[in-house]
Amino acid sequence: MAEGTNQGKDDIFSQSSFAIVRSASLNDATATEIIKQIELHGGEVVVDNYPAERLTLANLTHIITTTYDFPDYYDALDLFVQVVRPAWITASVATDKLAHPRKYSPDPNLFMSEVVATCADLPPGDKDAIAGGILAMGGNYSSKLTSQVTHIVALTMDNDKVEQVKSNNLNMTVVLPHWFDDCLKLGKKIDEGPYTLPDPEILQGVSIKAPLGRPNKHVAGATASHPEDGTVPSLSGREGLRVFKNKRVLLDEDLKISQSLRNVINGMILASNGKVVQKVPEANVLICKYRYGDNYVAATARKIDVGNLAWLYYLIVHDLWTSPYRRLLHYPVPKEPLPGFENLKISLSNYSGEARTYLENLILATGAECTKTLKQENTHLITAHKKSEKVAAAEDWNIAVVNHLFIEESYAKWEMQNVTKSRYVHFPTKTNLGEVVGQTQIDRKVIEQKFLLPAQSEVNSPRSLRKGQVDQKALDAGTPAKANARPASNAKPAAQTKGAQTPATSRVLAAEKENLTPTTVGSRKSKEAAAAKLHNMTPDIALFEKERKRVGGVVYGGRRKADEDRIDNGRKRSAEPAEADTAAKKATKRRRTGSTSTQMHLLVSGYKGWVDRPKKEDDETKRLRDLGIAIVDQPAKATHVAAPKILRTAKFMAAIAYAPKILSTDYIEACLEEDDFLESDDYELVDKDNEKKHGVVLKKVLEKAKANKQQMLKGRAIYCTEKVVGGFQTLQDIAEANGSSLTHYRGRHTTIPSRRVGSESESQDEGDNEVYLISNDNEEDRRLWPKFVRMAEDSRRTPHVVIAEWLLSSALRQEIQPVGRYKLNLAKG
């Protein structure tokens, strides 16, 4: 039954069947009460003591649990079984209809799941941003003060809601909106203590005292991927183990453990009512050291649980099932370095205890070198906060300073991440980020895409199982048909999609990518499940992303009606063309020959037909690909751009530099309507109103872009303040598309790189002598201006301090604009 469907009070669960996952946090008394509520309202409890009882997912619609750490979690998602916390039952009963399941997900990546917030004295735009962010990250928002509220977001204690809390002695926390802003920027829930009213630490001015670390349970038992023989858990007092019940465990030979240790581990598994097996087809758990070899490939293709020795020990010590994907060093390590990390030298600062040990081992697992001290030859410094001598030295030496999310997410995605990404350089002033170390999870999609060949990732997928296409003979031999036992760094990876993902196992929002090119690899069921989950999330995601991207995050004011990138959902489609015009367009289309070869790489920006409709977008993207039109999300790959008008989005502005053909989004609708690849000439974008508004002629702009060859800004040194309007990453993307890049400027005196030296035949541009600082006109940034001017003059360069509009206007016109109208008054500095 669809969520939100009304039923009689006594039968709201009549079309639902349930399983109850018992755990330390969902005890027998709670489980009994849940079962009573379900049966009272017409539901059926099929399994009431999982995982002690076996589970048949085909017979279920819902699983009630307080944790996602149970063996069938991912399979349940793939089969559209809703996994919800007990509060979902309570909410459904209270409203006499099935509550929305996503808000009650136990997924730890939905880090606001236990937060119910209301706003007190904030502007409407900030309320919308906070509501959207909380909902997108698994929490709830209430416009009114109810007993379920956990946090009141306010700027002062002087408001009616806070007065009610004080007068009624309610257990609610009053926090500044800055807390949500920092949580959303990091993608992690940090301690709200420094943001708590009436006396929040973050408003007490700059302090030389470093923020103290807090206890961190996320890395306990997961600081190393392969413990030494001597660290095996003791059998003493472990006679009652249950964690391996119904598990058939294969210990791979690549563990290289002694026979005596192997015997000890075998004994623990058997004592826990599990079995020890010798072949992958007999196993539902594989323990191995590396993402390598026949057993690893076969087990991963069969989608059984694959973990390492540290994970096995964790299960034994805690007697509690946990997913091997949950902690990065509980999953087997690659045998070869992460591409790009081979020559990196990384040092750590301000992390201590198990968090530091974990990060040291994680750095080594990427193939980089972890140095105890910081020297000029270091490439990166990973720090928990910025108040240390190491950080000051790193900035003086132009060493990249990032938080631990950079190394965690590079490893989880098995791809070096951009060190300038805002979440990696964000350091809340009163927070030691050691408190959120170890929360990043292995990305399951990455495992399929980068450590299995396409044919392997199809083995035992729901699609191949339905069609009976599994090569059982190959699996019985311990490896899929045509399996390549080499790690994926030496094998051609499966097609990758950098699109939006739901927040489990890095299903955290990646909604910066507007359009997805569907992958041809992997389980169709998985993709359908992801699309369905994303569809449930899209209203929250859309609001969160729209507000997150605006200037100032969720702290500095709302969206204005006049904002240029404001979506007008009320715009009507243009009238249908006359029959004669339609016939003429049909006459120009190219008929398909049955080939699916790509004839156009299309970047789409601002197309309203796909807003909040991910299933429609996915279906139509596939149809377009079949017509020879591949949807891309990187401007550099686009031969054509489709937009409803001239936009000032990061995608559109960066794409101009590559001089693509710019089409109206009507072209997409026309191709889908005709079910054919149409010639694009009749659909070129015409937007006289915005051409007049911005003072450009689009055709001439593209001619200039073609002549510039993405080198308009080449040779120009451009710096940028920390919190510049528009966002550093957006401006960086635009600058890079035009031949330059941005450098963070924090007031450190350094030598500006020398001007480029061309060949005798290459003329020098006068702009090579100029250096720019893109800045806000506020007190914080003004303090940097005199230092920047001195730095420029010491390097014999001409300094310009300008607003971000100088770069945006130059990119849109494909012509470097005189700084006059964009220049900030240096006298204020």
Task: Give a verbal description of the structure.
With 829 residues, the chain is an alpha/beta fold. Among the domains are: 88 residues, BRCT domain (Rossmann fold), CATH 3.40.50; 120 residues, BRCT domain (Rossmann fold); 104 residues, no CATH class; 113 residues, BRCT domain (Rossmann fold), CATH 3.40.50; 108 residues, BRCT domain (Rossmann fold, 3-Layer(aba) Sandwich), CATH 3.40.50. The protein has 27 helices and 24 strands. The strands form six sheets. The protein has a four-stranded parallel beta sheet with strand order 2-1-3-4. β15, α11 and β16 form a beta-alpha-beta unit. α4 crosses α6 and α4 packs antiparallel against α17. 45% of the residues are buried.
Topology:
Blueprint: E1 17-21, H1 28-40, E2 44-50, E3 62-64, H2 73-78, E4 82-84, H3 87-95, E5 116-119, H4 124-136, E6 140-141, E7 151-153, H5 160-168, E8 173-175, H6 177-186, E9 248-251, H7 259-271, E10 275-276, E11 285-287, H8 294-301, E12 305-307, H9 309-318, E13 345-349, H10 353-366, E14 369-371, E15 380-383, H11 389-396, E16 400-402, H12 405-413, H13 444-451, H14 454-458, H15 462-467, H16 472-476, H17 524-548, H18 579-588, E17 600-604, H19 614-626, E18 629-632, E19 640-643, H20 650-656, E20 661-664, H21 666-674, H22 688-694, H23 698-708, E21 717-720, H24 728-737, E22 742-744, E23 770-774, H25 779-782, H26 785-794, E24 798-802, H27 805-813
